[in-house]
Write a structure and sequence with these properties.
This protein is mainly alpha-helical. The chain has one domain. It is 78% helix and 4% strand. It has a two-stranded antiparallel sheet with strand order 1-2. β1 and β2 form a beta hairpin. The longest helix is centred in the first third of the chain and has 32 residues. It is elongated, with a radius of gyration of 16 Å. The chain starts with a helix and ends with a helix.
Amino acid sequence: MIDSLIVAFATILITIISLYKWIIIIGALLSWVQPDPYNPIVQMIYRLTEPAYALVRRFIPTVFGGMDMAPLILIFALQFLEIFLSNLFSGMM
């Protein structure tokens, strides 16, 4: 019973990580096209991504050649975390 609870928690956590990766990708694409900043969806995506970008920028210089690499660094970190957790929890089953 405890194993099922852990597997359910792991599945939800991995799904949240995957969803957040897509939010970051959408936010990065939006930064290229400069959408209406008053659009509620755009505001929500910025509110979801900017704190994570700020955390990465605090520890790693992210501007290379005029491009901000914070989304890319964050996607790689989340991909690593997703693979690590998948392998960790698959070994428990």
